[in-house]
Write a structure and sequence with these properties.
About 45% of the residues lie in helices and about 15% in strands. The strands form 2 sheets. A 7-stranded parallel sheet has the order 3-2-1-4-5-6-7, sandwiched between helices. The protein has a 6-stranded parallel sheet with strand order 10-9-8-11-12-13, with helices on both faces. The two termini are about 10 Å apart.
């Protein structure tokens, strides 16, 4: 019995598993690939919409992927969601699409458990602690997470909530407790993994399984490698970079305003990577800076292009005031780059005083002043930048690398299997 309990056959279940959609979609892909690299027999259930990309990425391992079929209803909900704001879309059409996906996931999971002798079903996404899961009574233990949520705006930025958010969010969060009874995957899950205490507090009220902490984000150190030597761009100026969506809560407008002040006395340049609803407004705000070629909007870049850019810049800046995660912070730290971020949400979990500078989001004016001071400190003190980069790399190596995460999750798998056989 003891030998049998040590055998792990894992099924990763997630709506999207790809490196193309950004955000949480890459998490299940990482679990699948790293577990297989660790010689753990692993299968994956994900949506057919990512099949083309997975065919490129997985090679022979594609045979271990089970696809959820595309249907006309998925397409209709997707089209409707495009007419809504991102945050309202997340709690309406995306939610309905995820419920439809859950139906297929449960059906395919029950079949896979019987067909492949699965010992553990693991659902790493969606990462929202409120989203229901249909992975209940699937004939083997279920692990959900790591989840990361329970986020709201800092009090000084509560004005950024849209009217629809103010009207819908509270009742929907209240209703979510009962939805998780109707679709009771989290109620019956053996383990609920959370990234932090904030997320733990946001879990459904009703649950039988134990709750454990495990970091949500991670970085692949085989891809995001620090330069062998200190890389310096050709011009004698300090280069800052922002990477992410161009939406209001990312506060890129405050970054541009801070850069205008910094540029008066400091020889520096700002690269802005990404796209989104605010792009045109931000381009107008940076008009003469673009003309003077000290601010560049680079659009969306591939992972390879971002790696090259991070190797050459001096500082990553992420002034977002509503960031549950922030994987780009870990990628920059893995490349020994210092970080400036807001002391709120995910960045507060990643960045310390020894690896970068955290800004207090008291209000817009205070955030602007602290950002100017932080960028000035980074620009003036190259030794401080280097020290932050070195210590940031060590922090990623010990806590946030995917290599370390996979070791932790395998230990959790073993414990769940042992618990099952002990009953």
């Amino acid at each position: 019995m003891e030998a049998e309990s040590q055998v792990i056959r894992v099924l990763i279940v997630s709506e999207n598993a790809t490196d193309q959609f950004g955000g949480e979609s890459i998490l299940p892909l990482h679990y699948f690939r790293f577990l297989r690299q660790a010689n753990v027999s692993t299968w994956l259930i994900t949506h057919e919409r990512v099949k083309e990309r997975l065919t490129e990425l997985l090679g022979e391992d594609l045979q271990y992927v089970i696809f959820i079929p595309e249907t006309p209803l998925f397409s209709k909900l997707h089209s409707l969601g495009l007419r809504l704001s991102p945050r309202v879309r997340a709690i309406s059409t995306q939610f309905l699409m995820q419920c439809l996906t859950q139906f297929y996931q449960r059906k395919l999971t029950k079949k896979a458990v019987k067909t492949y002798g699965i010992k553990i079903v693991h659902e790493p996404a969606p990462v929202s602690p409120k989203r229901p899961s249909a992975l209940f009574f699937v004939d083997c233990p279920v692990i959900i997470g790591p989840m990361n949520g329970g986020m709201d705006f800092p009090p000084g930025f509560s004005h950024m909530k849209t009217m629809s958010e103010k009207v819908l969010y509270f009742p929907l969060r209240l209703v979510s407790h009962f939805v998780n009874l109707v679709i009771p995957g989290k109620l019956f899950a053996n383990v609920l993994l959370v990234a932090n205490q904030r997320t733990k507090k946001a879990l459904p009220l009703f649950k039988f399984g134990r709750v454990e902490e495990l970091v949500e984000n991670g970085v692949d150190l085989s891809l995001w490698t620090a330069p062998g030597e200190f890389v310096k761009h050709s011009q004698q100026e300090v280069h800052f970079v922002y990477v992410g969506r161009l939406v209001d809560w990312k506060c890129v407008d405050i970054l541009i305003e801070a850069f205008k002040h910094l540029r008066i006395n400091i020889n520096c340049k700002l690269f802005i990577v990404g796209g989104g609803d605010e792009k045109e407004n931000l381009i107008r705000a940076a008009d003469y800076l673009i003309d003077n070629q000290v601010v560049e909007f680079l659009g969306w870049l591939t992972h390879e292009e971002i790696q090259k850019l991070l190797a050459e810049i001096d500082v990553l800046v992420l002034p977002s005031v509503r960031e549950c995660g922030g994987a780009v912070i870990l990628e920059a730290m893995a490349m020994k780059k210092p970080v400036i971020a807001v002391n709120w949400g995910g960045p507060a979990d990643y960045v310390t005083q020894s690896t970068g500078i955290l800004l207090n989001p008291t209000n817009r004016q205070n955030l602007l002043l602290e950002l100017i001071a932080a960028m000035d400190k980074m620009a003036q003190d190259s030794m401080f930048r280097k020290q932050c980069g070195e210590l940031g790399y060590q922090r990623v190596l010990e806590i946030f690398s995917w290599q370390a995460k996979i070791k932790n999750i395998i230990e959790i798998y073993h414990q769940v299997i042992l618990d099952k056989h002990a009953k």
